[in-house]
Write a structure and sequence with these properties.
- This protein folds into two domains: about 70 residues, no CATH class; about 100 residues, Immunoglobulin-like.
- About 30% of the residues lie in helices and about 25% in strands.
- It has two helices and eight strands.
- It has a four-stranded antiparallel beta sheet, with no helix packed on it.
- Helix 1 runs antiparallel to helix 2.
Length: about 190
């Protein structure tokens, strides 16, 4: 048994380390945010004329599946006009009368490979300070690649552990020694 543990751990380590490398190239086909204007948590002196979001790869230009909403803290939508959609980004005009305050941009698109993408971020207008919430961070290209690599490593480790458990279960040596008897016990007093 002591020889099987290092072999199994070596197999598990090899699988866990190789899965992220194998999965990194195909997973990069999904698009993510390359840039946004206004940017995440940006403090503006005056309202922006539009919200522009660029993506790392192509998106569908279907207006039914693409949305951009710019809401204040009272859930009032300050978008104005028609959403402009290109294969690499979206642009949404904003009402120039938008007052000072905190705003949230919520967007959804469909990547060229068919994967739905959505996200949100905040910005402020006027003398209002941005929110100090460190969890309100958009998933940009760099962050999504890191997240994807960690996810692949965890999935690889889980698959490796499962493979090792199956291998160890089916390669168990049979027990040595006398086999247990399944015969019913006999009573020697009845035999003359």
């Amino acid at each position: 048994m002591s020889e099987r543990i290092p072999v199994g751990l070596g197999l598990l380590t090899l699988i866990a380390l190789s899965v992220p490398l194998l999965g990194a190239v195909p997973a990069s086909a999904h698009s993510s945010v390359a840039s946004a204007r206004p940017s995440y948590n940006q403090a503006l002196d005056r309202p922006p004329s539009s919200v522009v979001i660029a993506f790392t790869s192509e998106i569908h230009t279907d207006a039914v599946t693409t949305t951009v909403v710019v809401e204040d803290e009272d859930d009032h939508d300050w978008t104005d006009g028609v959403l402009e959609i290109t294969t690499t980004g979206v642009a949404q005009a904003v009402d120039p009368e938008m007052p000072d305050g905190r705003y949230q941009v919520r967007w959804s698109v469909v990547s060229a490979d068919g994967a739905p993408l959505e996200g949100s971020y905040r910005f402020t207008v006027g003398g209002v300070q941005p929110e100090p919430n460190p969890l309100n961070v958009p998933l940009t290209g760099t962050r999504s690649e890191w997240f994807r690599a960690v996810t692949h490593a965890l999935v690889g480790a889980l698959l490796g552990l499962t493979a090792y458990a199956l291998w160890a279960t089916y390669h168990r040596k049979p027990p040595t020694g006398p086999a247990p008897s399944n015969a019913p016990p006999t009573n020697n007093e009845d035999n003359p």
